[in-house]
Prior knowledge:
The structure holds two protein chains of two kinds.
Chain A: E1 3-14, E2 17-28, E3 32-37, H1 43-50, E4 58-63, E5 66-68, H2 73-78, E6 81-84, H3 96-101, E7 107-108, E8 111-112, H4 114-127, H5 143-156, E9 161-165, H6 173-188, E10 192-196, H7 200-206, E11 209-214, E12 217-223, H8 229-237, E13 255-265, E14 271-281, E15 284-289, H9 296-303, E16 311-316, E17 319-320, H10 326-331, E18 334-337, H11 341-345, H12 352-357, E19 367-368, E20 371-372, H13 374-387, H14 404-415, E21 422-426, H15 434-449, E22 453-458, H16 461-467, E23 470-475, E24 478-484, H17 490-497
Parallel strand pairs in A: 3-10, 3-11, 6-9, 9-10, 15-22, 15-23, 18-21, 21-22
Antiparallel strand pairs in A: 1-2, 1-4, 4-5, 7-8, 11-12, 13-14, 13-16, 16-17, 19-20, 23-24
Chain B: H1 2-49, H2 54-66, H3 68-94, H4 102-119, H5 124-153, H6 157-177, H7 209-227, H8 229-239, H9 241-246, H10 251-278, H11 289-300, H12 304-327, H13 333-362, H14 364-375
The complex binds adenosine-5'-triphosphate and magnesium ion.
Magnesium ion binds at residues 43-44, 403-404 of chain A.
Amino acid sequence: MVNSVEMRGIVKKFGTLAANNNVDFSAGKGEVHALVGENGAGKTTLMNILYGVIAPDEGSIQIDDRKVHIGNPAVAIGLGIGMVHQHFKLVPSLSVAENIVLGSEPGSRGFFDRLAAMRQVAELADRFALAIDPMATVQDLPVGLQQRVEILKMLYREAKILILDEPTAVLTPQETEELFRTVRNLTSDGKTVIFITHKLNEVMKVSDRVSVMRAGRMVATLNTSEISAAQLAEKMVGRSVLFQVQKQPSEPKEVLLEVKDLRVMSNRGLEAVRGVSLQVRAGEIVGLAGVQGNGQDELVEVLAGLRRSTAGDVLLRGSSSKDFNPRQVREAGVAYIPSDRIKVGLSLDAAIWENMLLGYHATREFNRGGLLDVGKATSFARELISRFDIRGAQVGAPVKSLSGGNQQKVVLAREFSHGRRVIIADQPSRGVDIGAIEFIHKQLVAMRDRGCGVFLISADLDEIFSLSDRILVIFHGEIMGELAARDATVEEVGRLMAGVNRRGGDVIG
Amino acid sequence: MARSRAQLSDIGESRVAWAGHLRHLAMGILKPSAAVGLALLIGAGVIWAMGEDPIFAYQTLFNGAFKGAGNFVATLQYTTPLLFTGLAVSFAFRAGVANIGVEGQMLFGALAAGIVGYTISAPHFLHVALAMIAAAVAGAVWAFIPAILRARLGVNELVVCLMLNPIALLLTGYFSSYPLKAPGPTNKTYDILASAQLQQFTNSAQLNTGFILALVLLAVFWVIENRTGKGYEWKLVGQNPLFARYGGIGVQKSIIGAFLVSGMVAGLAGAEQVLGVYRAFYNGFSPGYGFDGIAVAMLAKNSPIGVAFAALLLGALNSGGIVMQMMTSVTRDLVKMLEAVIILLLAADFAITSFKARRKVAKAGTAGKSIGGGQA
Ligand SMILES: Nc1ncnc2c1ncn2[C@@H]1O[C@H](COP(=O)(O)OP(=O)(O)OP(=O)(O)O)[C@@H](O)[C@H]1O
Ligand SMILES: [Mg+2]
């Protein structure tokens, strides 16, 4: 096989921490190469080096058997390398076509030829069978389509090597399927796709070869067909991993959280939640399945006190909390893991201890007459860091110095640590590695067994199925059905998620 | 086994963190110093172009600022108002509030202190305290306008502050020229009573106990910013309001609070000038201390310790500038120019780093933008 990428002896240190420690990596022409490893293993760092974002301390890179020096992304783009980061960088107010051509706009003498751009983008989308409306405004598109715009942007610049950093973390199962189809199309076109993911079933499904990193080193590169998901997991974390948390049947007790005929408007003034009723009891995990954008965000925001409902009621242990602000919700014993850790769940520039203190800075434990007990807050943070095994964390360092998965652990550590009774977990394991997912799932189950009520919102059906005692499915702001997890099937849930009713099969909405 | 691994990595990590802290600290000092150095260099070029000897000019400036007790006292006197205004601006910046209306808030503080200074009579300490409280309240009231507009209606505080500054100048000017004018040729209020005066240290200069008060205030604000629950809230709202709100912090309240506190400090800047230096409110007494406060805050990187050094630097430039003007043909305008260049450099650095940061995150998105055209 011809190698289109070859990286040799890559070393990158941050201080004394070796994010990449003498890493060799190669990817062949026309192959899908999965790159896996725990949070903080150094995957993003390695790919950022390939894309010229980070300069390596040592090591060499060859592209198509030619030694190259990639000083910045511009050089990488010139060499036919493209990268889609986990957090998209599109201009929300511009159209699809404008976003795609941005930086290499068609036109002459400084004038932008909008029509030509539209035409080129339409042709490009056609050629790669990536259906999209070039005139749509990016901010109106669902995440899956925004990602498609990012991919088209790379293709527009004629990338031959495409790096996708955790592309499926934000996608629905359907969108993931479509992405895989795209990936296969691209490789049959002779392009190389490097694919970072934490989901091993995706590795098994889509990749030809897989490279495993652990603690800054490359531990193995294997043909996907010659290895099982379990073996791969073991290579990643150095021990065997449980894919399915073990849990006893639930023993639901009193109702902790109750939602009654709730109606909520979205930011765009449409009714996003249309008469939802549900209950979460002590000692059970209730999973809310649904394709993103069907009212989950609005529902959860009301529960968290971040948004007002227009009708209906929310009861916490029997008393109405519908008009609570976030502080009152917290004080009523609710833990909330927001789905967007970067925008909501963390302050990236603040220190790790400051992030872990949020919500408790005014409690007697950490605050005496207005004065913060910084010593206590930092030792509390230190304890959480070791209890939650947050790698690379130093209490005084800003959260942004952590890898994505370890940032998520900071959120979890804070929300799980104050003896709260109701846990609202919105995509709790987004972007974390399998070892950490196992850990998070175990924690959620342990919380349940301790008598907490857990409300789990997830776009990941595996997660819903492995954790929930009861499954609710939401579609167009309405609960389509409730199933006991024991006898629910993926097919049935999938049907409900698509708005197909159990009996009739007619589409509602 | 697991523990020993954790301990080992702990040692490594603390070293990393230390290196990080040191680098952070070094950059925090390095960048402002570089800006100052570069500004001095550019200034030297200008002096040379004027046909003067830059080294001699700077020497007189430096000596004029620091050599001899008299000069040094004068420098501290220039530094004092900048300590107040710099603190007011930097405190607001840190809380995510761009209070560039400190000049106007200071003017109202000064007027209030001046009025209380002659209209009531009270024992010395009480009188001073009352005048100061009046000044702080007046500054806060004037700051409340942009605060409420920003918090309730989302109106940009930069624009509001910019408009309120000249209004404050004209209004205080009107009061001191008409209804409250003391008899005489100058537009000023009545002299304050002796009981309201801040003690001056020497007979020849106006450095007064307000300077000590400013230093105490800096220490207090260091504690507020770094060791109190409120300071923590202000900082988080400044960094990420969504996160703060999610954590149960009232963002609007926090913004209003920060504005009011900043306005109070600005008001105290005015009180120090009236009670300690001028002993009456003079129309247009301020050469722009409120605006210099913005420069101080930018140099100080939003820390009270930084404010102390940055205010001293600008104070020294101003007081040394007078001596330089007397001894050479270089006028004090050079100092204004140096200040402007420093701000420009720091603002450019800020723009560049935030651009770089955006770029770093944007990577694919924006990286191609500058070069794509060339390639196509
Ligand atoms: N700019 C930086 N400064 C300091 N340390 C960093 C920096 N970037 C990354 N690191 C550290 O380097 C290590 C590797 O980070 P990297 O982002 O490559 O991990 P990753 O494998 O992509 O993890 P994840 O799956 O969580 O995204 C981590 O320990 C991280 O804390
Ligand atoms: Mg990563």
